[in-house]
Specification:
Length: 142
Amino acid sequence: MPDIALQIDVPAPADRVYRALTTTDGVAGWWTTRNETTGAPGRTDRFWFPDAPGPWEMTVDKAEPDAVLEWHCTGGPEEWVGTDVRWVLEPIEDGGTRVVFDHAGFAAVTPMFRVVGLGWAQMLLRLRQYAEEQRPVPFFES
């Protein structure tokens, strides 16, 4: 099974990055303005995108403040359903945070898989900018 594996250093503390991943306002700051995000284990976070027929649904499997967030995709495009997203936050020099990102469980390398890989790379750049500058730079506005 092909997986997406990325890493980026963010010049911001882990608590700021974690809030950007686990709150509605945080996710709106870098990914999509239309979302329902709790970051609470067992809950399903929802993310809407322009022209999509419905939300992407991610069940929060694990949430350790300032350290780990894991989602299991339960709704959205067929190729996403059943995949897992993992965010690991590691402290680095000067108070920054290394974000180690994995999106695993795709069935095959398809055109969608290739687009998703590029998309996540763009989203990580937005996450870094938002966490560093503390001003919204959403990729999707709906």
